[in-house]
Write a structure and sequence with these properties.
The chain has 317 residues and is of the alpha/beta class. It contains 11 helices and 12 strands. The longest helix has 23 residues, at 47-69. The chain is globular and about 75 Å long. The protein starts with 7 loop residues before the first strand and ends with a helix. The structure holds ligand C2E and magnesium ion (2 copies).
Amino acid sequence: MSAGGASIGIALCPDHAQTAEDLLICADIALYGAKDRGRQQWCEFEMVFRTRTERQHQIQQELGMALSSGQVVAWFQPQVELQSEAVIGFEALVRWHHPYLGPISPPEIVAAAQATNQSDRLTATVAEAACQLLDELPALGLPKAHVSINVSPREFELYDVASVLDSVTGAHRIDPVLFEIEITEEAMLDTAVAGEQLRRIEQSGYRLAVDDFGAGHSSLAYLVSLNVDRLKLDRRFVRDIATSRENQEVVGALVGLGRSLSMDVLIEGVETREEARTLSMLGCQEAQGYLFSRPMPAAQVADWVRERQGTALAEVA
Ligand code: C2E
Ligand code: MG
Ligand code: MG
């Protein structure tokens, strides 16, 4: 207890646990639940807390099998040139539909992979799917479109990212200039290990994008020191862009920043025509978001591209 008040976690015997040790664990979990809700709260241990922990364990236990059996897959979300809406690339996003837990979110998958030392396998799985799509794109009339994958900064400490990518892209004879790695910018990147890895990624010829720029970890010093090809502005700037002068000023400034550093600037999370119009007026050249397409299974990409090409031809005629 402190002057600011107390948070209380309650666990009952035998409802929540049968032994003293388990009861204390349950009370502790309930206490965290109480603190989560704000100050001076009390919270009874509910099965939901236990379920959350059990769910994490189950995800960790089954991830290896899910990676081997093809349950973990990549979906793809198109990236477009804002004015013409021409497709410039696709972002690979991990998906896992568990047979009875249902959809597992990407952050849960990434966390489970890290906890079980399987981050390299996860990246290899997504990179393999990205290469398969890159193999298909020329036949779809998109020989210059890139495919990007996400790598979280912590992963650079865990395994040799460049080697994993080299072996996957090498097997497909992919031109590395079409393969992009999106990293979120975090303090974690400021290590000798990450620096060395990023240099190798750059030497191999892959393109580098900084993801979620402006989401809180950004630092200009990093941006200048890393050899970044594309700046992805966080989707928080899109909300109310048509009316929020503040967001308009920020986006305009960030577009200028990207340009002066010779980076492509892409804005994420565009959901409406009005947002797209305003962003285009502010000088944004590239965008991604539900307006153009939600992420889709690899098998749907070809139809999606052909359908759009059909519409574009109809518009010209
Ligand atoms: P991200 O890389 O910033 O990916 C964009 C996220 O925004 C995706 O969520 C996408 O589905 C969502 N999104 C796209 N357009 C819109 C829109 O118009 N509105 C809204 N509200 N959302 C939109 P998702 O797929 O749930 O992924 C979440 C995050 O998980 C990703 O954020 C990325 O940081 C991480 N992630 C996904 N796949 C992988 C992976 O294979 N490896 C690693 N390390 N991280 C991954
Ligand atoms: Mg991303
Ligand atoms: Mg992002």
